[in-house]
Amino acid sequence: MYAKNFATKPMNLQEHKTKRRRGVVLTSTGIQRLQEAIISWEVIKNQGYRLTLEELSRQINISTKTLTRLWSLSKGVDQKTLKLCFSAFNLKLREEDYTVLNGENKTEALDFLSKYSYTPKDNSSQFSTYKIENYWSYPDGPIALDSPLYIDRPPIEEVVYREITRPGCVIRIRAPRQMGKSSLVLRLLAFANRKRYRTVNVNCYQIDDHCLTDLNKLLRCLCWKIAQQLDIEPNLDNEWDEEIGYKLSCSFYLQKYILQQSDSPIVLVLSDVDRFFDYPHITQEFFALLRSWCEEARQNQNWQKLRLVVVYSTEQYISLDINRSPFNIGLPIRLNEFTQTQVEDLARKYELDWSPDQESAQLMSLVGGHPALIQLALYHLASCTLTLQDLIREAIANGGIYRHHLWRHWIKLQSNPHLVKTYTELVTQPGSLTLDPVDAYKLESLGLICFEGDRILPRCELYRTYFKKQLYTTMV
C-alpha cells in the first residue's frame, strides 16, 4: 500500500512541505463508500437532488479540476485530497479505500465505475441519483427517485413539468394499475420542489372508511392533511363554519387560511382517488368541489397558487356510469407502454447482455410493453433466478412470475359476469372482435385489451393464454 511505502522513504522537512505526492486512486471499496455517503448527504441535506460539480467542489473544498481527476481515474491524486473528500461526508479514510495507481488497480476501479458510476449533476432537468444498494431491488411499487431503473416516456415528463408551472393548473394522471403513475408523480413532485414550490401528497387510502360516508369528515380530514404537510397549524375548529355548508367551508379554508399564508405555489397531489368511486354520492360531491376550485383559479389570484394533480386507476370504471365521468377537466395524461427501444434500454440498466431486436422481441411477444411486467421479468433475469425461455414457458403454463398479477385481474373480471362472457369470446377467437363500446371502454379501463386501428385484441399473449384457460375451466 502507498501509505506503507511513504513511511519507509526518508524525506527531509523541506521536501515534505514543497513536494506533494500524487498517484493514489480509489479502490472499488473506496468508490462505493464515498458514493453512498454522497448520495445519503444529497437525500438528507439536498432534498434528494444531485450536487453539481461546482456544488460538490464547494462542499469538499477542493477544485473542480481535482474532482474531475478523482472521478475519471485518469490520474492519481494525493492522500490529503482523499481525506478531504471522505471527511466532507463524515467518513474516515481507510487503507482499503485507496491504492497506488497502476494498470491492474485502475482496470478494477474502472470496471466498478462502469457498473456503479456516480457523476455530479450538470443538467438541472435530471432528477435522479444513484443508490447502489437498491440497484436490483424487487420491483414492487413506485420506482424511487434515486433509482436508475426509471424509463422516461417522452413527451410525458416534459409535458407535466411544463404544465405544473401554469397558475391554477389541473393535471389528471389516469391509467390501469402498475402503469407507472406513482413513479411519475414522484418525479413531478421532485421537479416542483426544485422550483421551490410547496408540495402536498395525499394518498386517499390513508383516509379512514368512516370519512368516506360523511362529506364533512372527508373534507376536514383532507384539510388537516394539507395543513400538516405544509407545517401549518390546522386550526380547523376556528376556521371551519359548517353553517355555510361543508364544501364552502373547505373552499374558504384553503383560500383564506392555507393559500393566503403561502408566497409560493402549492402543488396538491391527490393519489388513488379511485377509492372514492365505491361511494357515488361522495364521488359526485367531491369532484364537483375540485371543478369549482379550477374555475375559481381563472379569476382569483389566491386560487392560482394551487396546482392540482389528481391520480387514479381506471379499474373501478366498470362500476361507474359511463355517462358520468368522475372528473373531466384539466390536462389528461395517458401512460403508454414501453417501446422495444425502451425495453432494451432498461435491459442494459439491468446489465443484461441482449442482442438488438432478439430477446426484447421474445419478451414483448409475451407481455407487450407493460411496464410492471417488463420490470418484473428483467429483475428475475438479472437475478439469474430464471432464463428467458423458462420465464416464457412457465408464464404460459401457469402464470409463472405473473401469477399474482393475473389472479388480481381474474378476480376483478369475475365481478362482472357480462364482461366475463365478452372477454371469453375475445380470447377464444383467432382474430379480433367488434365489441359494444361500453364493454370495450370497461375492458380497456381494466387494462385487458388494446386497440390496433379498428381491431380490438387481448392486451398481450400472456392475457390471451391465461384467461382462455381460466375461462374454459370455469365453463367446464
Question: What is the element layout, followed by pairings?
Answer:
Blueprint: H1 2-8, H2 13-18, E1 24-26, H3 28-45, H4 53-60, H5 64-72, H6 79-87, E2 98-100, H7 103-115, H8 156-163, E3 170-175, H9 181-194, E4 198-203, H10 215-229, H11 236-239, H12 246-258, E5 266-271, H13 280-296, H14 301-304, E6 306-313, E7 331-333, H15 340-349, H16 359-367, H17 371-382, H18 388-398, H19 403-414, H20 417-428, H21 437-445, E8 449-452, E9 455-458, H22 461-475
Parallel strand pairs: 3-6, 3-7, 4-5, 5-6
Antiparallel strand pairs: 1-2, 8-9
Can you walk me through this structure?
- The chain is an alpha/beta fold.
- It folds into 3 domains: 2-115, no CATH class; 156-333, Rossmann fold; 404-475, Arc Repressor Mutant, subunit A (Orthogonal Bundle), CATH 1.10.10.
- Helix content is 49%, strand content 9%.
- The protein contains 22 helices and 9 strands.
- It has helices spanning 2-8, 13-18, 28-45, 53-60, 64-72, 79-87, 103-115, 156-163, 181-194, 215-229, 236-239, 246-258, 280-296, 301-304, 340-349, 359-367, 371-382, 388-398, 403-414, 417-428, 437-445, 461-475, and strands at residues 24-26, 98-100, 170-175, 198-203, 266-271, 306-313, 331-333, 449-452, 455-458.
- Strand 8 (449-452) and strand 9 form a beta hairpin.
- Helix 10 (215-229) runs parallel beside helix 12 (246-258) and helix 20 (417-428) packs across helix 22 (461-475).
- It is flat.
